[in-house]
Structures are given as C-alpha cells and as structure tokens.
C-alpha cells in the first residue's frame, strides 16, 4: 500500500543525496542528530549511502555490525534504508560512520506537502480558512475516529458523506439484533424518535452538521469537512421540525458511548436543566467521550440565562458560540464569560443537505449549530494524531490554543476563536500528548519454537500481542537481521490492532527471527523469545531442504526395520 509519509521521507533522502553528489562526492557524513530546529524525523530510521563497488554482502556486514537492519534498498543512491531501535539511532549512526564501506549516514527526514482539497465548493468555505484548517491538514487530514451526530438524522447515502459514515461491525442486514442493543440492523446508527434502525435525515439540519465535521475531503465534489477522513455515527432524536426530548437524547448518548464514539456533537439546546441529560453526558465523560454543544441562538448571556446542554459544568463538555469573518460574536449567538468556552464560524456556512431539501445536495446555514461541528471536527483531527488522548486532553488542547481577540474576551471563557492549526501546534512543537516516549508492552514469540526444525519452506510465524495506549501501528518480522514481513493495523488508530501472525517463505538453512512492535508515536519494542527466556531477543529455527528431509525419513525407516 502506498504510504505518503514513507514516500515523502525517502524522496527527501534522494534529494539530499543528489545534492551531495553534485557537490563532488563529498564524503562527509551527516550526523543523525544534526537537524534544523523543528525538523521532524522518521523514528528509528537512517538513510545510508555506500561507496561505489561495495557488494551487498559487505553492505549487510557493515549494517549488522553497527546494530541496525537493512529495511529496503535505495538503488538510485547506492544506499539503503536502515532501521534501528529509536533510542539507539544515534549510536548506530556513529558506528556506521566508522565503517569503510559507508559513504554517508543521515536521518530519514520527514517532508510535507501543502495540502488543499480539490473539492469544487472549497473556495466558498470561509470558515475552514478562518480556523486555519488548511495549515492543520499538512499535519493530518483525519483517521477513522467515530463522531456521533445527535440531530435530525444524517443523509448517510449522500455522495459527499457516504465514504465517511460509521458502520456497526457487530450488526448485519438480516432483520436480527446481533449486538443486543435493541435495534435490529442498526448499520449506520439509530432513530430514537421512531425507535428503529434508520437514522435518515427528514430535515437537513443533521446532514449539514455532519458535512461540517466530515464531508469527504479531496474527492473533487462539493465541500470538505474539517476532518477529511472520519466516521459519522448518525443518531436521530429530533423530528423534521427540530424538536425532541431529553429522554431520547440521553438514550442516544448512551448508544453513542456504547458503540465507541469518541466525540458527540449536540447542535441543539433548551432552557431547562435535565438530570437525565446531565447524567448521560457525565457517563459519557467517564468513558472518555468529548461532548461538544452549541451555545444556542437566543442571543442571551448564558451565565444568567443558561442554555443546556452547553451550560452543564462538566469536564468533558465544550460549549461553542458563533463568530463572523472578523472573529466578532454574531448577534444571534448566546454567550457567557464563564459558561461558553469559545467561538467558531457560524455565519453563511456551506455544507451537505439531502437532495430532497436542495437538488444540488448543498446549501448554506447560519447558527451556533454550525459553529459546534467545527469544534467536533477539530477534536476528530486531534484524535487522529493522538488516539490515546483523554477527553480532558482534547478539551485542553482545543481551549488552550484559541486565537484570542478583544471582541471575544468578554463573551467567552477562553476569550478566543477555534484555531485548528494552533491546536496541532503546526507552527511549533507537536502537542504535549504526542511526546509519548514509552514503547509498547513486552511480548514474546510463540511459534516456531526455539531450535525447531521444519521441512516446510512456507512457515507461519506467531507471537503474543503487544499493547499500547495509542494502538499498535504495525508488527515487523525480521529474519537473519533483515525485515522479512510486516503486519499493519487494518483500520487505523482507535480500531483493532494488527494480528500477531504472518506467513513467509524461507530458503533452507539456519535462521534467526524476532519481531518488533511499532506504536503510533513511532516507539518500538523488540520481542523476547519465549516465556522463561525473557532476556533472549531472537529464536533459532532450521529449515531443511527436501533432500535432507527425505534422507532423514529413510534413516528412520531403516532404524524401524532393525528394531
């Protein structure tokens, strides 16, 4: 599968090497730690150039003696991509520098493209530029993070939404309730108004909200959401007039949490405090779910005339007012120096609607209902980079990075407007939660056992799973110091970890094998061999040739005849 990050990093290595050759074959070695401030590196990887005439055997010997492993050949520069434990990369680079076969050593630098979507209506989406989403997209455009939209439903077959709609993996379209949640065939969500499994939007409000969060980006049609790649869970509890009740809302919140939603968007409000609603949102917070609520369109001071659920004083709630192109509070937006957290664009916002509402499938609305999903989309982007972040960490990242303006200082608690690029610290260091330096949990090999022999060339390798809060990105199988296989995460951060097994074909002879687990922060853990031998890093196995196996079989038969 094409990996843009790896492709960009290797391309950077080619460019750097080309400059070195153009300068007359400068033999100076680039140190692994000699990088410009803010320059990002691929953890645990080095680009190594070899002298002309060096054989592949000499290359392997130089790398093996230095404590690294050749991951892939880079033929155009007579070099290789070398992997090492991230904590030992500098030492491996030092040892490689001293090898006569090595021409240069340098880090595998990360380069980034300036990403703008090709969606036809992007030029009219002033709100995305206002919150600096394009700068954030150079860091991440999203991942399959589940965001529940509690609203009038969602047009889940809309061409700009269908690819980003959540699917209930525990349910099938067969009239049965396989997951026991009270809804048969709830594939994309549920309708709590009619108590069925079809959350189709019969208004336009919920679909418009969903598009702001996660209309599919860079697909050449319509608009783009804050997060190009997300999973929208459609939960309908409002009717076609926009009316609903707190009992249905609480039930929808419980459904969202039970089905893995990391963010809930609530673009609705009411003037009465509800214990049922408060308790449901509190339960969601205890399960790590962020709750983003619209401030309301009454134009009142919510510190004195609270609107709920935005005014609930809970640590997982973010309340959102609406601002204009000049970052001024819109006249209709409710506000509050203590009860409303921040502002986001809420005027003339273009997004998706059902074709029954507008034949084009798109229109513009205004309101705090449009402001809240900007924040929900930003939370999804943050979680795409930091899948192990808590609701409190996401909330702190959003509120701690707002663009502060005098016009919002007296009307919101943070005094500012959403800034997605600052949230991801595009202009500086990575977010604090990204400073994860802990490797994955220890794990052991399982099969084939140490010093086992087999006459089969095609062998299945198995190991015990490793664990990590951010998830396991991939397992790498090494045989004789070289990477021989890779098992990648099948569904991205927050989903299932990759399976701890793979099958490869080996030549006859004696082999050593081990596995490395890599998390989403780039930390690496090498396997121990087997339980009871936790200090051993690799296992030995023997693959017999067919002729050897036949000879051994003949010897066993001769022995049987003489006994």
Written description of the protein model:
With 563 residues, the chain is α/β, with parallel strands linked by helices. It has 3 domains: 4-109, 2-Layer Sandwich (Alpha-Beta Plaits); 122-434, Rossmann fold; 445-550, Immunoglobulin-like. It is 24% helix and 24% strand. The protein has a 7-stranded parallel β-sheet with strand order 6-7-5-8-9-10-11, with helices on both faces. Strands 17, 19, 20, 22, 23 and 24 form a 6-stranded mixed β-sheet that branches. A 4-stranded antiparallel β-sheet has the order 2-3-1-4, sandwiched between helices. α7 packs parallel to α8.
CATH top level label of the largest domain: Alpha Beta
**Intertermini distance:** 57 Å
Here the CATH topology of the largest domain equals: Rossmann fold
State the helix count: 13
| Rg over CA atoms | 28 Å
User: What would you say the CATH architecture of the largest domain is?
Assistant: 3-Layer(aba) Sandwich
On the 0-100 scale, what is the average pLDDT? 84
Beta-strand share of residues: 15-25%
Category from helices, strands and their pairing: alpha/beta
Instruction: Write the CATH homologous superfamily of the largest domain.
Output: Peptidase S8/S53 domain
Q: Give the oligomer, counting copies of the same chain as homo and different chains as hetero.
A: single chain
pLDDT < 50 stretches:
1-38, 428-435, 548-563
Number of strands: 24
Spatial strand arrangement across the major sheet = 6-7-5-8-9-10-11
Helical amount = 10-25%
Largest sheet data: 7 strands, parallel
- How many domains? The number is 3
Q: Which word captures the global form?
A: elongated
């Amino acid at each position: 599968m094409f990996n843009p990050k790896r492709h960009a990093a290797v391309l950077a290595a080619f460019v750097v090497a080309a400059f070195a050759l153009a300068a007359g074959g400068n033999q100076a070695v680039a140190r692994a730690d000699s990088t410009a401030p803010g320059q990002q590196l691929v953890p645990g990887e080095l680009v190594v150039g070899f002298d002309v005439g060096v054989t592949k055997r000499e290359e392997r010997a130089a790398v093996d003696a230095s404590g690294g492993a050749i991951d892939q050949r880079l033929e155009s520069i007579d070099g290789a991509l070398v992997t090492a434990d991230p904590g030992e990369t500098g030492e491996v680079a030092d040892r490689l520098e001293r090898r006569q076969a090595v021409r240069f050593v340098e880090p595998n630098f990360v380069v980034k493209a300036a990403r703008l979507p090709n969606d036809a209506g992007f030029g009219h989406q002033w709100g995305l530029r206002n919150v600096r989403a394009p700068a954030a997209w150079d860091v991440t455009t999203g991942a399959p993070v589940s965001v529940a939209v509690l609203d009038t439903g969602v047009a889940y077959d809309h061409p700009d939404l269908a690819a980003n709609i959540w699917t209930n993996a525990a349910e099938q379209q067969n009239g049965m309730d396989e997951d026991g949640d009270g809804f048969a065939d709830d594939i994309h969500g549920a309708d709590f108004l009619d108590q069925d499994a079809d959350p189709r939007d019969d208004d336009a409000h919920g679909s418009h909200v969903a598009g702001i969060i996660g209309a599919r980006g860079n697909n050449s049609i319509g608009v783009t959401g804050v997060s190009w790649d997300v999973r929208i869970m459609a939960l309908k509890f409002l009717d076609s007039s926009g009316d609903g009740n707190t009992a249905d809302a609480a039930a929808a919140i419980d459904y969202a949490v039970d089905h893995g939603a990391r963010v809930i968007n609530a673009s609705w409000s009411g003037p009465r405090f509800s214990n049922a609603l408060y308790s449901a949102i509190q339960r969601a917070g205890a399960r790590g779910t962020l709750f983003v609520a619209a401030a309301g369109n009454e134009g009142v001071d919510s510190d004195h005339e609270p609107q709920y659920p935005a005014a609930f004083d809970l640590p997982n709630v973010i309340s959102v007012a609406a601002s204009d192109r000049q970052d001024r509070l819109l006249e209709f937006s409710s506000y509050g120096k203590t009860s409303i957290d921040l502002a986001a664009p809420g005027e003339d916002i273009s997004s998706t609607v059902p074709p029954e509402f507008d034949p084009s499938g798109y229109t513009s609305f205004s309101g705090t209902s449009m402001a809240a999903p900007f924040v929900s989309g930003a939370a999804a982007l943050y979680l795409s980079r930091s899948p192990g972040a808590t609701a409190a960490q996401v909330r702190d990242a959003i509120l701690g990075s707002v663009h502060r303006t005098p016009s919002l200082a007296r009307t919101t608690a943070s005094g500012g407007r959403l800034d997605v690029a600052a949230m991801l610290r595009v202009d500086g260091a990575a977010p604090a939660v990204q400073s994860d330096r802990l490797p994955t949990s220890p794990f052991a090999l399982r099969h084939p056992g140490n010093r086992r022999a087999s006459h089969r060339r095609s062998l299945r390798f198995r190991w015990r799973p490793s664990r990590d809060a951010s998830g396991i990105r991939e397992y790498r199988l090494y045989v004789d110091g070289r990477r021989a296989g890779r098992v990648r995460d099948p569904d991205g951060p927050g989903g299932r970890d990759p399976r701890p097994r793979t099958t490869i074909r080996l030549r006859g002879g004696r082999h050593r094998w081990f596995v490395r687990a890599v998390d989403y922060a780039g930390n690496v853990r090498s396997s121990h061999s087997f339980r009871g031998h936790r200090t051993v890093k690799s296992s030995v196995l023997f693959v017999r040739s067919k002729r050897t196996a036949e000879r051994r079989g003949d010897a066993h038969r001769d022995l049987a005849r003489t006994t």
